[in-house]
Predict the structure.
Amino acid sequence: MKRIAVLTGGGDAPGLNAVIRAVTKTAINIYGCEVLGIRDGYDGFISAGGVIPLDLAAVRGILPRGGTILGTANRGNPFARKILRDGKEVVVDISDEVTAAIKKLGLDALIVIGGDGTLRIAMELGAKGVPVVGVPKTIDNDIGGTEVTFGFDTALMIATEALDRLHTTAEAHHRAMVLELMGREAGFIALHSGVSGGADVILIPEIPFKFESIIRKVRERAEGGAHFSLLAVSEGAKPLGGQPVYRRSGDEIYTPRLGGIGQEVGQFIEGQGFEARVTVLGHVQRGGSPTAFDRWLATRYGAAAVRVAAAGGFGCMVALRNAEVIPVALSEALAVPKRVDLNSDGIHTARGLGISFGDE
Ligand code: F6P
């Protein structure tokens, strides 16, 4: 391997810089390889100044930093790009242009750090001959093939701390506190932080809920002397027979933007005679410094991705399985998105603790 490149795509997640650092250091120290950074996802291949050299000095001091020194983009799909043509918006496929730009750079490997969307693009570029290796990133933890993505642990820590803080003010004011959490169609953040933060009700997309069931829990607690309740609500949670709440619908370019279910749950609780307040934690879950676990995982992923590339394992992503980092085919990892398993010990544990999922 003489020259490799690394890019970050999709929404950011704490630990991106740790991967970039590990890729750069491993490639230089072990393989004596030149490393290039691609700015703003795949866009960097076709924009002026989009390709920058990465050396040891460039990655010094970035391990604890959130965000990504390379920048990212979640609307940079080269297979579907919106442009203005004759004053009208049209969607075009510029993947040949991107592939040609990658070939021109003479890359022996392209390490793509991203979630489902970014890795799917990597897989499609792989089919066009680009030597790609993926690194799974997302706070949502919804990528198949791996037990965990980096960024998830940091989001959990922030969500759990938020629940702890809401807990004390809920108790002081005898209120129901609703915390709306990220995660898209996967309920991992709400489930794990809800259990870790002592929530009384956890609503996740995988378990459609009934409003009556939520209020039953709040009422039961009040009757038992606990005049406050804590609710961890995943942004993708939906009532039985109903739809998730969106702030903005999607199209070929934009993924639909979830948000608002927390407010609906809070309003319902108030309508039943209990005081309620709603907090939407939002992008606080994605920003700032990664936890030690995310730094450790991200560093291992970055180093392993370079080893996989050196061994010619293209079309794979690195994954954590049974405490080992191993390569897994992107096609296998992306075949089925990961969702909370309703038969998992996490769900049974929560039910055993008396936590309501709003379904009983
Ligand atoms: O996939 C990560 C995530 O943070 C989701 O949990 C959330 O729904 C979405 O991205 C938010 O996207 P954006 O940053 O575009 O608002």
Remarks:
- Residues 3-150+290-321 form a domain with the Rossmann fold fold (CATH 3.40.50.450).
- The pocket of 6-O-phosphono-beta-D-fructofuranose is lined by residues 11, 74, 115, 138-140, 182-184, 235, 257-258, 286 (CB under 6 Å).
